[in-house]
Amino acid sequence: MASNEKGFTYILIVVILISLITLLVLLIKDTPYVETIAPNLTNNYKQELNYLLDSNFTITDLNNFNNQFYEFIRSHNYEVKICTIIDDGTKIYISNYTGTELKNIPHKETIEINKEDNQIDISFQNCVIDYNSDKKISYYLEIQNEKTKEISSIKGENFNDSSFVSP
Amino acid sequence: MIKSLEVIIAITILFSFIFLIFQNIPQQNITSNVKERIFDILKLKANEPAFRSLVDDGNTIEIYTSIYDYIDVPYGLSLCSGYTNDCNIINIENNYRITTTIDYYFFDLNKTISIKTWAE
Predict the structure, then answer these.
(1) Which pLDDT tens digit goes with each residue over B61-78?
(2) Nearest CA to A147 among A20, A59, A5, A32?
(3) Are A167 and B41 a contacting pair at CB < 8 A?
């Protein structure tokens, strides 16, 4: 009986070792695996903004677009900040979905200004348009989830950097 | 003799444990690749007016079949009004262990496509 017990020493050591490693891994990995969807949400915004800008959009379309994405992303439990400046040659559209009330642009509002009347550079949160440059679009989207500590952001000035994979 | 047998069993248990650990690591990478691939397909399809028209019509079966050739893993699809309300679901059973969910929101249609893959 004594020799049998002694005979299992190595097996017992291995089993205990495995148990300890498993326990250690479980303790280190204190947060459960959460699927990361933040990059998809930001890319979804970029892709659909591209689609909107290809159409003859109005200030209402742009405001609805940002409002819908703001709510869509919030429905996935993320805090959202969006700013958009679009220069179509005659007018400049500015959207404020940053959660901050600005002097002339309330939160969740989009305004338009005549380009000829305002020959100045526009800088707004993380969106910047230089009046003299050829840059016509500036947008910034930042999302974060406090619970899962996920943060993702996307900043764009044009849509030439879109890299699609042909299926 | 007993010692040798004991060592063999101990090593077998140890290697089984190591094998299980290494088997799980690539699974996470595969999931990540599948996710990127499916999202790229959705981005590409979202540029096609015909595809957007299918989404607008709520034609779930046609949407499913139009991307079928490009996705090489088993998948299910749901098309929801708004963000997650009133969904038409195709090929997703309750007992599936969903590993990946890819959502794509169409702002002008106010509809969301959600593609789910699962572990077999």
Answers:
(1) 999 999 999 998 889 999
(2) A32
(3) yes
Tell me the domain boundaries of chain B.
2-119
Q: Where are the domains of chain A?
A: 38-156
A75–B83 C-beta distance less than 8 A: yes
Closest approach of chain B CAs to the CA of A152, in angstroms?
16
Q: What is the distance in angstroms between the Cα of B90 and the nearest Cα belonging to chain A?
A: 22
* Interface check A166 vs B, CB under 8 A: yes
Alpha-helical segments (H) within chain B:
2-46, 49-57, 60-68
Q: Cα distance from A23 to chain B (closest Cα, Å)? A: 13
A72 touches B83 (CB < 8 A): yes
Condensed to tens digits (0 to 9), the pLDDT of residues A20-64 reads 888 887 776 655 555 678 889 999 999 999 999 888 899 999 999
- Residue B50 touches chain A, beta carbons under 8 Å: no
For B94, which DSSP code? T
CA–CA dist A57, A49 (Å, integer): 11
**Does ipTM top 0.90?**
no
Contact B14 A14 (CB under 8 A): yes
Asked if A7 and B8 touch (Cβ cutoff 8 Å), the reply is no
